[in-house]
Specification:
By secondary structure, the protein is mainly alpha-helical. The chain has a domain at 269-451 and 468-496. It is 71% helix and 1% strand. The protein contains 21 helices and two strands. The chain has a two-stranded antiparallel ribbon. Helix 13 packs antiparallel against helix 15. The protein starts with a helix and ends with a helix.
Length: 540
């Protein structure tokens, strides 16, 4: 079964190459891309089941850890791969209907599919990486692809936003690479399992420096406050499908890296109070930005930043329940946030704008779109019995179990943030859907009296019909979000088992080194003179 592990990366990479070869055939590119992501989703789903009985480790090239590259899939990795592949597949189907990959003037068709598949390969690489340098490679693969996707069409807005995004991402990457170099200098390895064992042997002040550097690098990628300034100005400028992928996946890769950092590399609680303070600031600042926006995409971008705070809170608690709740909330947020951005694409296509000052009457004009927006909006706002409520309740319960004053402050702040998120979303519902279209011009209300027009919000496009394929893809993600509620029990039990394993680093270490950790200077078994004889003796 170990052979399944590298396929989640190889399939999208090889499919990207095939898509380039068939660059002149739109149909061939579509088939290749959809088939590749469907295959990865099936493999990811199989891995979710397989690793429940124990993690899978793939030693690339037969080189044993820590001398070679290892790919590790545990419960968390498998779940992230499966959910990410599902979202990537749904968004790809949406984009085909949207025309983004179908040949409109704004998009070079020949490069969209290969770039999109490379983005997926980078995401999957990051999830299964067993060493820090391979994690860095995964980040860089997805970031290079994201640069291209963000600037498709070459409009002034997208180039400006892409420039900001590139600069910030490069700073984060340089900091991450410097952190890897310093960790290697301190402990003599970049293998995550071996780092987990050796990190406790170096002085505490050095540990804290390395810890802060890693958290800063991952914090930029995850868009936690005060390192989130770039996101609201970057994501909304991209086409709707691209924005959905970015919002749903890219920041979660950063959160995933933070989880690995806090549970494997630095399992202590020295910085947990600081992380809780950062979580509080991220929650509050993000939602305050959301309630001040007139543009739906910018509002959703700020809510994205805000809800990263919930995930950081769960990690900062340092408990099994906190980690399990974080895993469940990540899965929920990936699906729901991507769904809302896709729905915003439908709103823009039908209403000609994403500014709530220019929208109205959509409940009558597009009732299906209204339903597709309303359900994930309630979910993100944390209304029972949806998965958003269940995830937040689990996080609050974990915080209450800790029982510190700061934990109770975060519970209160989290509840208020959830209400403000719901307020911002229901304002969109009231103005864009319930307000009659004839009342839009010159409309005055307290709902829009204090919101700011977003850059580019004056642009209004022609209203267009919504292809069924776009509606189908969005509806599929809505159903997936509802499934997280229906199957919340088994999913949370799975997340709890994942949390137990993560909070016990020895489980991960023993999986990577089943025969014990080699001492410094030991020769890998695969290169020893007797390796071949041993293999021949054991062979049937």
């Amino acid at each position: 079964m170990n052979a399944l592990v590298p396929l989640v990366v190889l399939i999208p990479l090889l499919s990207a190459a095939a898509a380039l070869v068939f660059g002149r055939s739109r149909t061939a590119q579509r088939v290749i891309a959809i088939a590749a992501l469907a295959a990865v989703f099936l493999i990811g789903s199989a891995l979710v089941v397989l690793v429940d009985s124990g993690p899978l480790v793939m030693e690339v090239g037969g080189w044993q850890a820590p001398f070679g590259i290892v790919l590790v899939v545990d419960r968390l990795s498998a779940l992230m791969v499966a959910v990410s592949a599902l979202v990537l597949l749904a968004v790809l189907i949406f984009s085909v209907g949207h025309g983004l990959a179908d040949g409109d003037d704004e998009t070079p068709v020949s490069i969209f599919f290969p770039t999109y598949l490379i983005l997926g390969a980078g995401v999957f690489t990051a999830f299964i990486a067993g060493d820090l340098f391979n994690l860095y490679v995964g980040f860089e693969i997805l970031l290079v692809a994201s640069y291209v996707l963000m600037t498709l069409g070459g409009t002034t807005e997208r180039i400006r936003a892409g420039t900001t995004y590139i600069v910030v991402s490069l700073v984060s990457s340089v900091l991450f690479l410097a952190s890897i170099a310093m960790i290697y200098a301190a402990v003599g390895t970049v293998n995550i399992a071996q780092i987990s064992l050796r990190m406790g042997e170096i002085p505490m002040d050095v540990q804290i420096i390395l810890h802060v550097m890693l958290l800063t690098a991952f914090g930029i990628k995850a868009a936690i406050f005060p390192l989130s300034f770039w996101l609201p100005d970057s994501y909304p400028t991209a086409p709707a499908p691209v924005t959905a992928v970015f919002a749903g996946l890219l920041t979660k890769v950063g959160v995933y890296a933070i989880i690995r950092t806090e549970t494997l590399i630095f399992p202590g609680s020295e910085l947990n109070p600081w992380l809780m303070g950062i979580a509080l600031a991220t929650l509050v600042v993000g939602v305050l930005g959301a309630v001040a926006q007139a543009d739906i995409k910018r509002m959703l971008s700020f809510t994205l930043v805000s809800h990263i705070g919930y995930m950081v809170l769960g990690v900062a608690l340092g408990s099994v329940l906190g980690t399990a709740a974080t895993i469940y909330y990540i899965v929920h947020h990936i699906v729901v946030q991507a769904t809302l951005f896709l729905t915003t694409g439908l709103i823009e296509r039908r209403g000609g704008s994403t500014s709530i000052t220019k929208l109205g009457g959509l409940l009558t004009a597009a009732p299906v779109v209204a339903v597709l927006f309303f359900i994930p909006a309630l979910n993100l706002g944390g209304i029972p019995p949806f998965s958003g409520f269940l995830g937040k309740f689990a996080l609050f319960q974990a915080a209450a179990d800790q029982g510190t004053p700061l934990a109770y402050v975060l519970i209160g702040a989290g509840a208020i943030v959830s209400l403000l998120t719901l307020y911002a979303l229901m304002r969109v519902w009231t103005l864009a859907f319930l307000r009659p279209a004839k009342d839009v011009a010159g409309y005055e209300s307290n709902l829009i009296g204090r919101i700011a027009a977003s850059p580019g919000s004056t642009t209004t496009r022609d209203r267009r019909a919504i292809p069924r394929l776009m509606t189908f893809a969005t509806g599929g993600l809505v159903v997936a979000g509802l499934a997280l509620t229906v199957f919340a029990g088994p999913l949370f039990e799975y997340a709890n088992r994942a949390g137990e394993a993560l909070e016990t680093p020895a489980t991960y270490v023993d999986t990577v080194f089943p025969n014990g950790v080699p001492a410094i200077g030991d020769e890998p078994a695969s290169l020893s003179p007797d390796a071949g004889d041993a293999d021949s003796e054991d062979a049937p």
